[in-house]
Specification:
- Helices cover 38% and strands 15% of the residues.
- The longest helix is centred in the middle third of the chain and has 25 residues.
- It starts with 14 loop residues before the first strand and ends in a 6-residue tail after the last helix.
- It has 8 helices and 8 strands; from the N terminus they run E-H-E-H-E-H-E-H-E-H-E-H-H-E-E-H.
- The radius of gyration is 17 Å and the shape is globular.
- It is of the alpha/beta class and 288 residues long.
- The protein has one domain: 3-Layer(aba) Sandwich (Rossmann fold).
């Protein structure tokens, strides 16, 4: 399969919400969706950067404030948005030093997983078709520790924390798909990862890993943000099984293809414990 944006079905009349669409992969998604005829709400913390992306897209793109590191902002966004077709949970932070969200969550888990968990639960009744969850190859570095999602008992490691958050994305996506199906919902779930996409996230950790990332860029091991957006766009616009996982054909780069994920994502006990911990921390329950 060599699917690319030119193979995307027409999206006229369809409405999308893309979190973190002010740069990188999210901006590429918004641009491609608008080009295909969709209306896209760029849900972003940095409104100035989001406006710069939205302006050339014209009336088919709107900007709305969403800070996933602040649950009050998540609730305000959810209250203000109308019905739409597809939610793409794309925004993320990577390899940060220990910092905490407004609500006291470890920043990476709080933004990448808990913020999106809360957002999805709060807007689910307005989603007409599909939820897309962005994971990462970094899930292979992670653990599911529902008893310590916020790194209060462990010695903090920024890369391990990032891996935890992306594994949580994977587990959440799989369990959301199961619960929606069991509840008789018509809403489906797609999960994706971008491979090795060269964005600002990839070289901004201020750790030795940045040198490896820059070397990979020079050696053209990775791919552009636009190419990195393709697996998620495939999952968002094509007829895919609910709960399926998509990434580049050769893991780091290539056209969208079915991707492998950690077995823990199919461990029902791990799923249930993560779900329960996420509900408790965010105080958001899903009406399924």
């Amino acid at each position: 399969m060599n699917w690319s944006a030119i193979d995307m079905p027409a999206q006229e009349g369809r409405r999308y919400v893309v979190t973190g669409a002010n740069a990188g992969i999210g901006a590429a998604m918004a641009t491609r969706l608008v080009a295909a005829g969709a209306h896209v709400t760029l849900a972003c913390r940095n409104l100035e950067k989001a406006a710069a992306v939205a302006e050339p897209l014209g009336k088919s793109a709107t900007v709305a404030h969403l800070d996933l590191a602040d649950l009050s902002s998540v609730r305000e966004f959810a209250d203000g948005i109308g019905e739409f077709d597809v939610l793409i949970n794309n925004a993320g932070v990577m390899a940060l030093p220990m910092t905490r969200t407004v609500d006291g969550f470890e920043m990476q888990m709080g933004t990448n997983h808990l913020g999106h968990f809360a957002l999805t639960g709060l807007v689910l009744g307005k989603v007409r078709e599909r939820v897309i969850v962005m994971s990462s190859l970094a899930q292979n570095l992670g653990q599911i520790r529902p008893d310590d999602l916020n790194w209060t008992t462990r010695r903090y490691n920024r890369w391990s924390a990032y891996g935890d958050s992306k594994l949580a994305n994977m587990v959440f996506g799989r369990e959301l798909a199961r619960r929606l199906t069991a509840g008789g919902s018509h809403v489906t779930v797609g999960i994706a990862h971008p491979g090795y996409a060269m964005t600002d996230l990839m070289t901004g950790s201020d750790t030795p890993v940045d040198y490896l990332m820059r070397a990979g860029e020079k050696l053209k091991v990775g791919q552009s943000p636009d190419a990195g957006a393709m697996p998620a766009l495939y999952a968002a616009t094509m007829d895919v099984p609910t709960g399926s996982y998509w990434g580049p054909k050769w893991a780091l780069r290539g056209a969208p293809s079915p991707a492998r994920y950690r077995g823990v994502a199919d461990d029902q006990s791990a799923r249930d414990r993560l779900w329960a911990a996420s509900e408790e921390l965010t105080e958001v329950s899903f009406d399924l």
